[in-house]
């Protein structure tokens, strides 16, 4: 069976899934993506990664600002879709749109549902200290990530994983699994959507910029997870006096003192006391500067023993 596949997505995570679907030979008849946004120092309107890929393959691209109005819904209906794959699209799909494709709408979600429903499942899994995560292919319904699961795959979260690293592994895994599910559909199989458990539901709320501030009263292990979870966005921040410093790399070490006090400062890193244990800050950055290893950072921004970071 030849499927008429629609694709709805916006960032690089979604772009990888679209590329895999195209590589597998599926007939993608339309790509829905967010309107172009200002980006870069010149704040020029920039197409999303999904739009760039779709355009390079000659796939029609539609960029409605909402799918709640009759005009946008008529636009989608006109493509006569068998299935709509939705990956980090960024717009709510009303029931009218969910009902349009013959086989419904399939979403790639970067967690093992029902844990971490919502906008930031990768960040929140690392921040919470989860040992594993994965991807679910979900049959979408009108709820927030509440649909039945038709396929899932798991992977371990490593002790050194940042959101950037885990994002890339999950994007590859999600791309692999959505292709497998579409191949089942194309072969005439009936997908079985397993309802999600009613226990263990957690929400991965969108990251707010103010969350980037590190509270050194917390345990070093928790702060290490937060630094990794907020890399590459929004970055974890400490202050030396009025000077903000972004922390991009750290490790938990032994040490004790007043939380925020610099215990040692040399080429191997800046060791700062926490509410429990200590952190060795290894990669640091000032506003407008480059990310630097501690040895290079300290040459221009000394943080002597006894300095109090907040």
From TrEMBL:
Highest taxon, organism lineage: Bacteria
Single GO molecular function: methionyl-tRNA formyltransferase activity
Record keywords, A-Z: Protein biosynthesis, Transferase
InterPro entries in the cross-refs: Fmt, Formyl_trans_C, Formyl_trans_C_sf, Formyl_transf_N, Formyl_transf_N_sf, Formyl_transferase-like_C_sf, GART_AS, Met-tRNA-FMT_C
Pfam families named in the record: Formyl_trans_C, Formyl_trans_N
Binding positions for (6S)-5,6,7,8-tetrahydrofolate per the UniProt entry: 111-114
Residue ranges occupied by any Formyl transferase C-terminal domain in the UniProt entry: 206-301
Formyl transferase N-terminal domain mapped to chain residues: 8-182
Cellular component GO terms, alphabetical: cytosol
Reactions catalysed according to its record: L-methionyl-tRNA(fMet) + (6R)-10-formyltetrahydrofolate = N-formyl-L-methionyl-tRNA(fMet) + (6S)-5,6,7,8-tetrahydrofolate + H(+)
Enzyme class of the recorded protein, top EC level: transferase
UniProt EC number: 2.1.2.9
Function of the molecule: Attaches a formyl group to the free amino group of methionyl-tRNA(fMet). The formyl group appears to play a dual role in the initiator identity of N-formylmethionyl-tRNA by promoting its recognition by IF2 and preventing the misappropriation of this tRNA by the elongation apparatus.
Family under the similarity heading: Belongs to the Fmt family.
Entry-linked NCBIfam families: fmt (TIGR00460)
Descriptive protein name: Methionyl-tRNA formyltransferase
Species: Fluviibacter phosphoraccumulans
